[in-house]
């Protein structure tokens, strides 16, 4: 991906190196498969500097990803202790509302693991292990008890990690006709040099409001096979979609060809949210990214299943009205862009399709 390197930025990690990598609030063992120094045109988001393509140990290959260097730390004793402390902290806070991934990462990176603190921990362990007055039989019994505690702790850690991984498996599969819309949109933007007219005729906010109006119709609720919402879960889900869209559009939902248009349109409509400007095409891209975004939450199995049901129901609504919300005539041609940018965006759409077809 790195067609143009930035010589003054050193790569601090190497290919095939075993590291610890942040994913959500926790650190996980990972192996670096590729190490590259990105230039301004090497990614859709415009990110630059050292980036690493990592595989998380024990995870499916579908979770392999490019990460910036600030998410990677050395695999050493200090950071292994840091990993354990983060897991303990996460375990204690599981029943509390989850903080955002961005706040948690900032807190984690501010942690201080000095050499003196590590030495102090080692001295405490040594003092527990040594007891010159113990009989050989008592010492053997104590060591057996300690091994039992360690095995129990390992099992508890494995159960906790398995629970976390299960939450990562939220599935949002796009209907076939919407996959076609996703590909058509990518081809229009990156191959045909055409951009959508903005603001869209039907904005994300309008689509979400129409869905709510539809779901508040008792006949529609019965037809969708969803249970009536005593607490109006539909409104909560719609509000969540809107928040995610407004926050992520500028960072992860745009192709490189669209970034200048985004800068211009934001200057033109300072009083509007992204959901009041962009439409179904960009909303569809969000649904492909949602599994990764939702992996950072601490929902239990029941909440995850309920959310999946409502997101799938919304996609059915979007599919039913696709002729209104998606319009081929809403694209305008723009100037040619360098092949390097087209190459980078080509990798992005492949990621979209692969993620939408995850099993």
TrEMBL record:
Gene3D superfamilies hit by this protein: 2.30.30.140, MRG domain (1.10.274.30)
SMART domains documented for this protein: CHROMO (SM00298)
InterPro entries, per database record: Chromo-like_dom_sf, Chromo/chromo_shadow_dom, MRG, MRG_C_sf, MRG_dom, MSL3_chromo-like
Keywords, in A-Z order: Chromatin regulator, Nucleus, Transcription, Transcription regulation
Subcellular location: Nucleus
Limits of the Chromo domain: 27-88
Major location (coarse): nucleus
Protein name in the entry: Chromatin modification-related protein EAF3
Family according to the record: Belongs to the MRG family.
Residue spans of biased composition, Basic and acidic residues class: 117-147
GO BP annotations, alphabetical order: chromatin organization; regulation of DNA-templated transcription
UniProt region (Disordered), positions on chain: 88-160
The keyword Metal-binding is annotated on this UniProt entry: no
One GO cellular component term: Rpd3S complex
């Amino acid at each position: 991906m790195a067609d143009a390197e930035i010589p003054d930025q050193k790569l601090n990690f190497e290919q095939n190196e075993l590291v610890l990598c942040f994913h959500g609030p926790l650190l996980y063992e990972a192996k670096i498969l590729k190490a590259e120094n990105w230039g301004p045109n090497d990614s859709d988001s415009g990110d630059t500097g050292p980036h690493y393509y990592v595989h998380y140990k024990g995870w499916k290959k579908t979770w392999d990803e490019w990460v910036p260097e600030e998410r990677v730390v050395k695999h050493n004793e200090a950071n292994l202790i840091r990993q354990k402390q983060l897991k303990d902290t996460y375990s204690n806070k599981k029943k509390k509302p989850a903080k955002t991934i961005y706040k948690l990462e900032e807190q984690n990176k501010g942690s201080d693991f000095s050499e003196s603190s590590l030495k102090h921990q080692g001295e405490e362990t040594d003092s527990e292990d040594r007891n010159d007055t113990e009989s050989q039989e008592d010492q053997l019994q104590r060591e057996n008890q300690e091994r039992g505690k360690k095995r129990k702790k390992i099992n508890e850690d494995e159960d906790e990690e398995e629970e976390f991984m299960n939450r990562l498996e939220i599935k949002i599969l796009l209907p076939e006709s919407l996959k076609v819309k996703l590909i058509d949109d990518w081809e229009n933007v990156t191959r045909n040099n055409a951009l959508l007219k903005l603001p869209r005729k039907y904005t994300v906010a309008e689509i979400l409001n129409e869905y709510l109006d539809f779901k508040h119709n008792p006949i529609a609720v019965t037809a969708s096979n969803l249970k009536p919402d005593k607490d109006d879960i539909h409104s909560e889900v719609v509000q969540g979609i809107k928040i995610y869209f407004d926050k992520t559009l500028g960072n992860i939902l745009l192709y490189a060809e669209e970034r200048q248009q985004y800068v211009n349109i934001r200057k033109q409509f300072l009083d509007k949210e992204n959901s009041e400007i962009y439409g179904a095409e960009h909303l569809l891209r969000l649904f492909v990214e949602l599994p990764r975004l939702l992996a950072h939450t601490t929902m239990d199995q029941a909440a995850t299943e309920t959310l999946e049901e409502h997101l799938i129901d919304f996609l059915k609504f979007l599919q039913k009205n696709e002729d209104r919300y998606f319009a081929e005539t809403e694209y305008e041609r723009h100037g040619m862009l360098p092949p390097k940018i087209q190459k980078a965006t080509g990798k992005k759409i492949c990621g979209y399709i692969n993620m939408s077809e995850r099993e």
